[in-house]
Structures are given as structure tokens and as C-alpha cells.
């Protein structure tokens, strides 16, 4: 350590603004290696699935014969869960190494801090979802995209909406769980283990779960007989996101560090 | 100036902080001493607005921490259980902290050099040694050139050279008219750094005053500490 610096005159003090906290939150996310890793996995897997679905090179055995990958909603939506971890890490990393206490010392107003982090997490997720989704989507729907069909555009927007809303659900969940691991485990396990087990017993309930609502929105339901329509799917998914964020906000403002 | 007035913090039926009152004045290094579990970190967390007090007040320059307009330019803190995400690089950790309070990027470099981490600035914190992490925490506390420094066991993990640096630095910092409050277990270290002392045990103040007043009638600060806290500590070693 070097000799102590001589005392200086205090520098002119500029007021701390909400924008400063937003900028700080942005640095937090983009300097997190896990966020970049999640982005790479999501776009890589999305592109790969787009190619497979487009060429129909692989079919998966189903009860009624082989199913083309393009009809397997759960598989096609799998990259979204890698993508969701960007928001989950953004929120959950506060609870790693005791960063939250540093964050609160820098921005003591818990409402302000929560709002800033949520804004940045949602904005970066929205911006990142475009490069994450676009290559795979264009490859899979190349004919429709080249013909500038309206349906191709709507389908793309639906996919972006699904990515964003699932990210918000993950963000809120991470704040409530005070970790990144629990929400990722639950969000990933639910569609593959919990939903299939419940589907035969409680189909009316399962269709309201986030993953199933997202598949309805994307017109790729697992069980078309009981599934919601695309609009209802969007509404249900948005309701989950709102509930998750609202619960997280309440918990965050009341919690002790 | 730091004012703690009748501060209490109860966890279920544990009175971690029980009606503590003391002040830390500008121009002095105030040592905050007490055995493990005495309530030092709990007091400092309330002072920083991280936890809510059960009753009483903790003020900095007459204000609650959360009401400060420029928190990091007013108060620099090193707290127990507060630190960087291990995967982040040290420079990135300091950069977001600086950005959140409109502190220049140049200052990030300055504090890194000041604590001797200039060379290691681009390494991930999980590859840091204990002492390096501690130095990073001190660098973060100094970012805003604050009027008040609150350090919870700052010399934890530091080598002799680092300890000497902290001692000189804090004395000079206080000599320039600023307020320094630090907790420590190292009595000889504290005796060489602090000029005012507050000793707490089981959440209550057992002695406070200038170093000379608290040590009066005892050979050293350490014997004073044991005399004041020793026979009342819960677990026996
Ligand atoms: N979040 C918490 N929930 C319940 N009890 C707590 C909590 N934090 C601290 N305590 C209790 O409060 C008491 C004071 O703890 P504190 O960490 O303030 O002590 P300390 O003086 O900093 O000790 P040390 O020297 O070991 O750092 C202890 O009995 C501890 O168990
Ligand atoms: Mg402590």
C-alpha cells in the first residue's frame, strides 16, 4: 500500500440521480461473466434448433409416431431458459458475496434500487432477446420471413414477449429466493418434470403455468385440447410476470440486509 | 460526527444491541471494541441503514444514512458480510460503485493504487487472497473521499505492512478533521490507532472515553478490555 494521499479540497459534488443508479446497474450486469455465458448458450441453442427445425432433419419419437422438431414447443422454448438466467443472475447475484449491502450503501432507498435494477434487467433482456432469437427464428421460418408475411412478424414479436416475460418472472423469483440457483432450477425443472406429471391429473391447472402459457402464446401447446389461446397465453404470462415482480418488490423493500 | 442514541436491536429474544449511546467526533479515530457477538456489526449495519433499529437513533452529521443526498461522498464503509460478487473483476466492482454516486472513473484507479491493488485490478475477485479482498473493501470505502469512515474490522487478514498502512492512514485521515469509527478485536492495534474508545459487551456499553480514560488503572487496553468484558462473556474457552 502506498503512503496516504495528502488531504485535498472536497471535489464539487453533483447530486446522485436515478440515471446514475441505472448506469451502475448496467455495469453490474455487463461485467458478470455468467450473463454473457447465458447469452451465448441461448443464441447458440436457438440457432441450432432453428436449423434442425427448418431442415426437419431430426424427428423425435412420440405416442402417435415421430414428431417434427418444429412442433415440439418445450424443446423449442428450451433456449429461453438459458436466456432467462441473464435476468436471474442480475437479481440473484446481489445475494452472492454480500453485494446487496454494498448496493444499499450506495443507493440506500430500497424502492429506488429495486426500480433501477428491474428497469435495467428488463431493458437489457429485451435488447438482448433480439439477437438471441432472430437467427434461429429466421432460419426456421425462412420462407415466411422472406415473403414478409404478417404472421412471421407477429410470431417473432410473440417470441420476444415470451422471452421478456419469462425473464421478469425469473428476476422476481431470484429476489424472493435470494439466490440465482433456486429460480433457475425451478424454472427449468417445472416444464420437464412437474408439468408432465400434473398434466394428466390437473390439465386445467397446468395450462396456467408460465411455461404452458408461453407455449400457448407461441401457438406451440403441448396439449392443444386443453391449452389456452395465444392471447390468453400472453395475458396469463404477463400476470405471472406482474405477480412475481410485485411480490419481489414487497419482499425487497421490507427485508433486512 | 456519528451519534448513536439509545439504540437497540432485538432479534427474537436476543438483545443484540441494548440501549447503546455514544458519539464519534470529527478529528478522532474512535475504536469500537467488544468480544464476538457483542453487537458491533449489528450497530454498524443499523448506522448504514441496512437494518432497522428496534428503537433509538443512529445519525451521521445529524441525518439518518438513508436521508443523505450523497451517501458515498459522505460516508465510506467497510462492513462485515458486504463485498463483491466473486466472479467480477475488482475494477468492475469499483466502477459500478463509483458510477452509482457520480464518482469519476479516475478515482477508481486512484483508490486501487492507494491500497496497492493497481496491478491486480483486472483479476477476478475470487482469485484474490483474504488480504487483497480486504484492501479492495477499503478502496471501495475511500472512493467518495468521505468525511466519515466506518470500518468493521479493517485489518482482518492484512499483513503487517498493510496493518501499519491502515493505522497511519486512519490517523492522518482523522487528523484532517474527519470522523473515523472502526471496530477491531486486536487490542494492541487498537491502542496504537484509536484515541477514543467505546467498549461494548452483550449489546451494552461497558466503558467509553479517551484511550487514557478507558485504560486508566490497567496496564494496557487489553487488560482493561478483559477486566470490563471477561467475566461476563457467555461461552468459556
Ligand atoms: N440477522 C440476525 N439474526 C439473528 N441474530 C443475529 C443476526 N445478526 C446478528 N445476530 C446476533 O446478534 C448478536 C451480535 O452480533 P454481531 O454480529 O453484531 O456481533 P459482533 O460484535 O460484530 O461480533 P464479531 O466480533 O464476532 O464480529 C449475536 O448474538 C448474533 O448472533
Ligand atoms: Mg462483527
Automatic annotation (TrEMBL), chain A:
* Keywords, in A-Z order: Membrane, Transmembrane, Transmembrane helix
Q: Membrane-spanning regions, if any?
A: 34-54, 74-92, 113-134, 154-177, 184-202, 232-253
Q: Does the keyword Transmembrane helix apply?
A: yes
The question of whether Membrane is a record keyword is answered with: yes
Q: What is this protein's record name?
A: Uncharacterized protein
Instruction: Supply the source organism for this entry.
Output: Planotetraspora kaengkrachanensis
UniProtKB/TrEMBL annotation, chain B:
UniProt name for this protein: ABC transporter domain-containing protein
Question: Source organism's superkingdom?
Answer: Bacteria
What keywords are assigned to this protein? ATP-binding, Nucleotide-binding, Transport
**Residues of the ABC transporter domain:** 2-227
Q: Which family does it belong to?
A: Belongs to the ABC transporter superfamily.
> What organism, scientifically named, is this protein from?
Planotetraspora kaengkrachanensis
Report the InterPro entries cross-referenced here.
Answer: AAA+_ATPase, ABC_transporter-like_ATP-bd, ABC_transporter-like_CS, P-loop_NTPase
Q: What is the lineage of its organism?
A: Bacteria, Bacillati, Actinomycetota, Actinomycetes, Streptosporangiales
Note whether Nucleotide-binding occurs among the keywords: yes
Amino acid at each position: 500500500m502506498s503512503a496516504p494521499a495528502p488531504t485535498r479540497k472536497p471535489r464539487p459534488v453533483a447530486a446522485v440521480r436515478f440515471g446514475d443508479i441505472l448506469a451502475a446497474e448496467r455495469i453490474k450486469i455487463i461485467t458478470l461473466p455468467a450473463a454473457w455465458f447465458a447469452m451465448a448458450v441461448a443464441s447458440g441453442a436457438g440457432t441450432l434448433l432453428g436449423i434442425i427445425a427448418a431442415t426437419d432433419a431430426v424427428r423425435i419419437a412420440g405416442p402417435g409416431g415421430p414428431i417434427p422438431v418444429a412442433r415440439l414447443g418445450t424443446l423449442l422454448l428450451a433456449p429461453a431458459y438459458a436466456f432467462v438466467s441473464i435476468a436471474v443472475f442480475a437479481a440473484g447475484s446481489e445475494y452472492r458475496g454480500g453485494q446487496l449491502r454494498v448496493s444499499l450503501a450506495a443507493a440506500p432507498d430500497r424502492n429506488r434500487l429495486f426500480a433501477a435494477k428491474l428497469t435495467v434487467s428488463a431493458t437489457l433482456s429485451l435488447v438482448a432477446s433480439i439477437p438471441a432469437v432472430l437467427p434461429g427464428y429466421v432460419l426456421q421460418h425462412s420462407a415466411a420471413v422472406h415473403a414478409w408475411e404478417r404472421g412471421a412478424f407477429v410470431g417473432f414479436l410473440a417470441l420476444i414477449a415470451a422471452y421478456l416475460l419469462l425473464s421478469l418472472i425469473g428476476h422476481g423469483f431470484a429476489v424472493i429466493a435470494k439466490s440465482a440457483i433456486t429460480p433457475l432450477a425451478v424454472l427449468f425443472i417445472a416444464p420437464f418434470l412437474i408439468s408432465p406429471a400434473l398434466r394428466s391429473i390437473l390439465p386445467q391447472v397446468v395450462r396456467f403455468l408460465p411455461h404452458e402459457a408461453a407455449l400457448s402464446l407461441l401457438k406451440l401447446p403441448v396439449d392443444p385440447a386443453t391449452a389456452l389461446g395465444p392471447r390468453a397465453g400472453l395475458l396469463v404470462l404477463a400476470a405471472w410476470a406482474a405477480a412475481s415482480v410485485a411480490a419481489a418488490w414487497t419482499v425487497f423493500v421490507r427485508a433486512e440486509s | 460526527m456519528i451519534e448513536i442514541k439509545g439504540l437497540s436491536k432485538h432479534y427474537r429474544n436476543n438483545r443484540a444491541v441494548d440501549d447503546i449511546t455514544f458519539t464519534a467526533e470529527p478529528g478522532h479515530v474512535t475504536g469500537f471494541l467488544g468480544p464476538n457477538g457483542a453487537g458491533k456489526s449489528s450497530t454498524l449495519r443499523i448506522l448504514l441503514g441496512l437494518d432497522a433499529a428496534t428503537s433509538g437513533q443512529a445519525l451521521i452529521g445529524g441525518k439518518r444514512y438513508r436521508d443523505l443526498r450523497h451517501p458515498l461522498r459522505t460516508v465510506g464503509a467497510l462492513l462485515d458480510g458486504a463485498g463483491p460478487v466473486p466472479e467480477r473483476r475488482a475494477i468492475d466492482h469499483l466502477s459500478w460503485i463509483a458510477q452509482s454516486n457520480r464518482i469519476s472513473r479516475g478515482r477508481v484507479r486512484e483508490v486501487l493504487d492507494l491500497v496497492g491493488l493497481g496491478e491486480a485490478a483486472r483479476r477476478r475477485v475470487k482469485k484474490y487472497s483474504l488480504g487483497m479482498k480486504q484492501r479492495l473493501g477499503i478502496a471501495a470505502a475511500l472512493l467518495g473521499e468521505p468525511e466519515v469512515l466506518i470500518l468493521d474490522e479493517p485489518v482482518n487478514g492484512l499483513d503487517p505492512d498493510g496493518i501499519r498502512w491502515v493505522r497511519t492512514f486512519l490517523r492522518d485521515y482523522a487528523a484532517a478533521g474527519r470522523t473515523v469509527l472502526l471496530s477491531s478485536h486486536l487490542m494492541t492495534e487498537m491502542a496504537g490507532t484509536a484515541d477514543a474508545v467505546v467498549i461494548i459487551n452483550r449489546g451494552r456499553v461497558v466503558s467509553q472515553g479517551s484511550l487514557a480514560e478507558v485504560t486508566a488503572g490497567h496496564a494496557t487496553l487489553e487488560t482493561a478490555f478483559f477486566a470490563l468484558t471477561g467475566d461476563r462473556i457467555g461461552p468459556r474457552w
